[in-house]
Amino acid sequence: MDCTLPAVAEELLKEIKKAFQETSHGADTFFFRLKFIFGPSAVPALDLVDQRSVTRVTSPSGRTAYQVLGSSGKLYTCYSSCHFCTCPAFDFTVVQKSESLLCKHILAVYLSLAMGACQELSVSEEQLTSILLAGEEDEG
User: Fold this and answer.
1) Cα dihedral sign for 130, 5, 73, 140?
2) Is residue 67 classed as helix, strand or coil in its secondary structure?
3) Rounded Cα distance, 18 and 88, in Å
4) Are 9 and 83 within 8 A, CB to CB?
5) Are 48 and 55 in contact (CB under 8 A)?
6) Helix/strand/coil for 4
7) How many CB atoms lie under 10 A from the CB of residue 27?
8) What is the rounded distance in angstroms from the CA atom of residue 131 to the CA atom of residue 123?
9) CB 115, CB 46: distance < 8 Å
10) What is the CB neighbour count within 10 angstroms for residue 124?
11) Could you give phi then psi for residue 135, rounded to 5 degrees?
12) Strands 84-85 and 75-79: what pairing?
């Protein structure tokens, strides 16, 4: 994983990935630990994973971003390299108030990657640039 999260969060995500690679078990065995570490973001993030709402968008140069279809039907752009999301909850809860490590969208990205539940989309460099710029326009 490219991001730097607290060691306990990193370790939990590694355990989930290992469990899914070995047995394809659901995240239920990790539910209480997810809830303890990630708080109120855990359950909605698992719902997003169940709905297969996370798409990894890659370009020929290898640049990657993630798009998450939120529960409201809005599409958010997430970056795993710096655990950032374009949603208002990330800005308010994570950045301004420091009440949570991650929003439900970026947590859904990490869980989808660990569980092998990410949709894949290959786009041109121009298309990826448009996706990234659209995320910036949503912020401002």
Assistant:
1) negative
2) strand
3) 32
4) no
5) no
6) coil
7) 20
8) 10
9) no
10) 11
11) -65, -40
12) antiparallel
Question: pLDDT tens digits for the chain (140 residues)?
Answer: 444 677 888 888 888 888 887 776 656 678 888 888 888 899 999 999 999 999 999 999 999 999 999 988 999 999 888 889 999 999 998 888 888 888 999 999 999 998 889 999 999 999 999 988 886 655 54
pTM: 0.83
- Round to whole Å and give the CA distance between 47 and 39: 14
Closest C-alpha among 115, 96, 136 to residue 45:
115
Q: Which of these, 87, 105, 92, 96, lies nearest to 38 by C-alpha position?
A: 105
- What is the Cα–Cα distance from 132 to 79, expressed in whole angstroms? 10
Q: Are 128 and 65 in contact (CB under 8 A)?
A: yes
CA 125 to chain centroid: 22
Amino acid present at 127: Q
Query: What is the token pair recorded at 42?
Result: 């855990």
